[in-house]
Amino acid sequence: MTADDLTALNEQIAAMARAGLPLDQGLAGLARDLGGGKLRAVTEAIARDLRAGHPLPEALANQEGRIPAYYANLVTAGVQTGRLPEVLTTLSTYSQAVASTRATVLFALLYPAVVLVLGLGLFCLMALFILPQFKGIFQEFGLQLPWITQLVLLFGEYPVETLLLPTIGFIGVVMLGWILTRYTSWGRRTWPRLVYMIPLIGNLIRAARLSAFTDLLGMLVEYEVPLPIALRLAGAASSDPVMAGRAREVEQRLAQGMPIANAFKGLGLVPEWVAWLASTGERRGGLAPALRQIANVYRRRVTTDSTVLRTVLPPLVVIATAGFLTGFFVIALMLPMIKLLDGLSK
């Protein structure tokens, strides 16, 4: 399922849970109203399992491969705490933040991508039809083309080796990377680390995930779920496999009697200030409010970073892309003309 399909299914389940409606009947009716595709197939399958007497987390787990594993874990946490609507609302908030981030990035890169495609088209036109004429003129006058123009001419003389094969290789590398990050455990663990390294975008995505993690953890603690179990459930509900693994390690440390500040130390699950604030809240008997406050801090950071991303990234990328292409074209095209005029004047 796509992220939009999962968000739509989640919001429907949350609305039915808030209204106290029978999920099997509600989802069956919803499936009949859907046109088709994976969302309808998954909704019908869940409704069938519910009618057969399977609990909701089990019905969701049976859709492995269609629904992410963390979603069933998230529903399990909601059922165990008796706060399923609130837990699902947390997921909706997180999904909307991630979707907003994705839309912001794509919108910011759309116009630069159009500029880049048009620039590459002009580059190919110049390399294939315009600069070869300069080459013939320079040979007649016994002059030598500038090195940057000779470099562009190589693309026109050997288009397969310099343009087609590198493009095919780049597409192949992208497809291989997509397969590795989607179907291998190593790739799923590596992909979040690579994403977090991207300036501004990585911080935004990590802040959204930490906001959902701490919000859910605070909700579980508030309803008296033991802290080690709450950490395991909140970590398993994360879409980040690295965060889920670190949460299990923290759970093991807490089960061994380690203080919460020491349990978080050195794992990179949360920043040091978060561990300190959570430890202070635990000592004062206010761990759940402290975790909710941490979630609010990260939620505000997501809002601020999204605004900066929408404001700064599009003009920055456009200026960089257009500036580079324009400068390269002007130098490669004008230098031969200047050198030709200089040679004729002498």
Description:
This protein has 346 residues and is mostly helical. It folds into two domains: 3-67, no CATH class; 85-346, no CATH class. Helix content is 84%, strand content 0%. The chain contains 15 helices and no strands. The model has no long low-confidence stretch (mean pLDDT 78).
| Total separate domains | 2
The stretches of 5 or more residues where confidence is low (pLDDT under 50) are: none
Helix content: over 70%
Q: Could you say which overall geometry the principal axes of the C-alpha atoms support?
A: elongated
Q: Compute the CA-based radius of gyration.
A: 28 Å
Number of helices: 15
Total DSSP E strands: 0
List the main descriptive attributes of the protein structure presented here.
346 residues; mainly alpha; 2 domains; 15 helices; 0% strand; elongated
